[in-house]
């Protein structure tokens, strides 16, 4: 039972840390364009033009 005194605060701290990380990413706009990334994978990149010597 003594180990619970250590594990419960550690678990609460890690949960709070994960929540803060999620909110930080939400404010930074990480989840703004979910459909764009899903459709971009379907298109090939444009071919690069090689520089002339």
TrEMBL record:
InterPro entries, per the entry: Cyt_oxidase_maturation_cbb3 (IPR004714)
Q: Spell out the Pfam families in the cross-references.
A: FixS
Check the record and name the PANTHER family matching this protein.
Answer: FIXS PROTEIN
The entry's protein name is: Cbb3-type cytochrome oxidase assembly protein CcoS
